[in-house]
Known about the structure:
Blueprint: H1 13-22, H2 27-46, E1 50-58, E2 62-77, E3 81-90, E4 95-103, H3 114-124, E5 134-140, H4 152-161
Antiparallel strand pairs: 1-2, 1-5, 2-3, 3-4, 4-5
Amino acid sequence: MPNKTIYVSDDDLPLFQRAQELVGGNLSGAVTTALRRFIELEEGRQEGFDEIVLRVGHNGARQVRFSGALLGEWNDQNDERMERVRVFRTRKGKIAMHAQYANWDEYPTDPKNWLNDLKNWRRMLGVGEQDWGDFIFVVVDSLEELKGEIPDKLYQRVADIADRPPVEDLDI
């Protein structure tokens, strides 16, 4: 197996020592894992993809992470609930749909503390993180599988751009 020598500055030595502790002594494995992750993220970024972190489940109790590009978003509020639906193209060519459905009768309020209730109003108006309701995450092979599952206007908007590259390089 070929050897490579990496020179580490004195200031960075604690970082390398901590990485070696975390992997049980195999510093080469830690460096290789970190380089793989760096290359994956950087190549994705150059191709127009971002690291996406989304809430999943009731009240967003869990999170999922993937590399993707937002294709379209739709928001609606009516007398019964708030809805937010987003569609992404993943780096591996799949389509991911993330939706939040929050019924107003489940809206978190605190009648004993009006300051907390003010914070909730800020969330409802889109200021800060929306963390109530049901968060759904679905990955499909093609956009056609979402037809009828997402609002028609969003489907049409996403269908118009789904087959285009994430980033169009212009020579202008």
